[in-house]
Fold this protein.
Amino acid sequence: MSGLLGQSLLVLRKDLLIEWRTRARLNALIFFAIATLLLFSFALGPDTVMMRKHAAGYLWLGLLFSSMLSLGESFRIESENLAMDGLKLIPVDPRAIFLGKTMGNTLLLWLLSLVLLPVTIALFDVTVTLGWPTLVGIFLVGSMAISAPGTVYAAIASHARARDVLLPLLLFPILIPALLAVVKATHLVFEGDLMDQLKSWMRLLGCFAIIYWTLGFLLFPKVLEDD
Amino acid sequence: MPSRGKKRPLPSGIDTNDGPLSAAPAIELHDVSKRFGARWALARLSYTLPQGASLLLTGHNGSGKTTLLRLVSTVTAPTLGTLKILGLDARADRMKVREQVTLLSHANFHYEDLTAKQNLELVAKLRGAPGLPAKVDGLLDKVGLKARVDSPVRQFSAGMRKRLAVARMLLLQPKLALLDEPFGELDPQGIAQMEAIMAELKANGTTLVLATHLLEQGKRLTDVSLHLENGRQVA
């Protein structure tokens, strides 16, 4: 199997196989994310109105912080034995590496969001007012919006000595608009959409996801190659 | 006029004159320099190696041998100068160059949590050439890893990793093979096997560039040599 899509799927399959074999990343992510949500709920105290009001924000902050671990780890396996150089020399199209890695990171983050949802419901006393399919869709597009720039910046940071510090410094500012949209959309699904705002926020989130994926696809070869 | 290293008698069919036997030289370096931070790892290196020839690259640690091999493999780019591999520009046509060049490196490019077979199958499928996945088992057998095909690379010794890297190199069927310390980490049996593999590659017309401190083996397997000191060609 070759070609851009074929190579992307092979990179994705390879990442998932390594993840499945070790399960280190997924386990660490789940524990870290749950611990983060617990800390947020303790910080708010027993004020259930406040908890419900801010649940969406805390859920996505938990996912964002966890994504730092996930994105960094996805390039650590490529640094070991200089495996990324090996991929480049096969040769694998850098854009296929971007697509494969981003799909893998999206999938992991999306699964994590689904695991965190019942924890959020239990800790923050929220209810899913507008239906589960909408919420699952928001989680998917939100995960896509975080993963695309996350993959690009994780690749950049993987060459740096202070990679763990550099990644959030680069990534957080660029994610603010998408994060705002996904938190608003999630909040509306939890609390109800009396003013019919959900579609606008989802459209905004979708636009950012498309922009991030397009820019990542176009820029990743520049990131990967030593010019 | 590019400078040349020391010549030894060449096997028949190999021409080191500038008029190439094949369409283009395997390697053409013109004033190539590479800088890391403030340090020049290679400085104004010019050299031409014809296709089918084999080059012994010598020099002390830090003399620039690995940097030169990485430049020729296109995994890194020169800071200054022009570099052509098999007649193709190493920067503009790097994907085409990579289809014909392999690098056997200190870092062996393996995924630690995949098995030996999974590592090679991944390479074969990503390359996309028909029939490559079917060659995986035979190559693992050839390098002496038949009994460990389903073991994760994490459990391999350094010598076994090197053998797997050799299998990977053979799988990619290069026109130009770059070998950085190919005998390192191998036991005497492995070294003999490696020599046989290199002789086989050479007989098949593959251009070899061999960087090693084992000069006896190196000289036996190569036609010309190039000595580097502090990133400069001295012989």
